[in-house]
Known about the structure:
With 197 residues, this protein is mostly beta strands. The protein is 2% helix and 45% strand.
Amino acid sequence: MIIYKLKCFYFDSINVSGYDLKPYKYDKIIPFNLEYKLYTIDYYTNSPYNFYDFYNTEIKKLDCFTMKKINTNPRVNNPNLYNINKDIGNKVTTMILPYKSDVIINELKSKYKLAYIYTYNNTDEYVEKELFINYRLINQQKDIKSDKFYFIAYEVIQSNLYNIIKWIPVLEIKIEYNKYFEIDVSEFGDKVELYFE
């Protein structure tokens, strides 16, 4: 009996389920128990705000930082200060900005089993695929722990638009973790549904 279905994730879309997925979409990562809305903003050589290093900031300070750069003397050409008389310049990088969310995104606080996955794509390739569950802090690039699971194609439904493929795990996948974690579905394509029981 399915008790929890995760909404469809379209990884070619920017906004999914009411929050910005851009920080996750390129790696095709689905976050769980996420307490922060994550936004991306481009950073330029003459940006009016300070650079915010998401991956080198304490978790307790993630949603409390000062953004604005102030230049009291615009005639001084200091790259660490904002010059109101110049344009924003060239793009340097993209920042990830976290804001505390009113609700926990993709909340999984009980014990669940990942029962199966549906994918929607145009492939005819039904070989075994890998799924990774990564346990780490939200702003930690290295995993505390990572588990790998294998899925096989169980059922294929062909339609005019795409193939709907039901994938089942080779071994049972129990999730008993009530803190932030991620499921890496990068091998499954751009449109994915997860079903838990």
